[in-house]
Write a structure and sequence with these properties.
Order of helices and strands: HHEEHHHHHHEEHEHHHHHHEEH
CATH superfamily of the largest domain: Glutaredoxin
Largest sheet: 5 strands, mixed
CATH class of the largest domain: Alpha Beta
CATH architecture of the largest domain: 3-Layer(aba) Sandwich
Strand content: 5-15%
Strand order of the largest sheet: 3-5-4-6-7
Shape: elongated
Structural class: alpha+beta
CATH topology of the largest domain: Glutaredoxin
Amino acid sequence: MSWKIRIALLSLLVAVAAHVYLSFHYYPLHLGFAEGEAICSFSEKFNCDSVSASRFSSLLGVPMAVWGASTNLVLLLMLLVYGFGLSDKSDRQLRMTTLLAGFVALTSVVMASISMFYLGTYCPFCIVAYGTSFITFEALRRSLTDGFWRHLAADLQSFFGESKAYLGYLGGIPALAFFFHMTIMQHYGAENLDKVVRASVMDWEAGPATNFDQPALLVKGASAETAKMTIVEFADFRCGHCKKASHPIGAFVGSKNDVRLQFYVFPLDGACNEAISRADGGSCRLAKAVLCAEKQQKGWALHDQIFAQQDDLNRKHSIDEIDWVLKEKSASLGLSFEELKTCMESPETHEHILTQSRLGKTANVEGTPTIYANGKKLPRGQLIPVLESTYQTILRGTAAR
């Protein structure tokens, strides 16, 4: 086996690994089970989650990452057949493998162009996969000892004659992709996701509208004037479901340039929420900390840090214990904890959180997270497919008007 073929094999293995990771992160993110960001989400510009949340991340309902893994696995099989001399037409085997590798490289150009010119966000692991597609193609092309184009017509005609095995290779790509997709969806109990999405959007369309006229705790995404879809989220920082919802909602907003997120707190804590009887002050303290951090332009950063540290914070049983964690997080974010503490203990901050809780009660928030889209409650709004379907419904309504 030549060194060029070995390079192609290694490149394919890297591509398969990248696509498999992206595939296995795609499903928890879209179905609301993700415990954290993808390891290749570094910033707003280089963010695998935002790319995964875009409408370009799937084809025929199957994630592009699954298509990529399936295609590269078939390529790997074809190359191994050639490398170990298992084909009686080794030259043709190499040419057909090179042809499929060229198609994968061309697809990489298309997907990279979408990221560059439409999304404006890049997936680092996708970039790795794009790079490996060109390495594989070039290594295979350089391994050819005879003209490629000269044999192309005859090679394609052989698909329906002596070389029907190549049709089997090509058919194996969608077969693998749909098999993997259905298996994983069954694993998550999401076989009826389409029905769930339709029901959520229908309930949203039929629901009454609420006017969220109070300033949100945190805001990200499009401006109020340019946003076609405004997502309102009410959450509690000690709520496990809120932690899981934060990842898909953030990724969805990051994948659009005309979606706005307004984050409100609805602490499940009677110390700052008149709708709750139980009071220990912990959830209120965290809400106040994020409000005060935002005054130092670090609200979203502390929001993320608190959710990341949620298990530890939920074991704290006093305000002093919570403050020790907040002091540590403040230092890591470059915040002045003394300023933060003074702000948290001010009557104005308490009134601000109390006002947000009252707004949630007026909007019929009964638990967290509760999500709204353009003023109407959106059931299961923490699921990216529900958000995407609602977004498309809004766009169709705007176009109709």
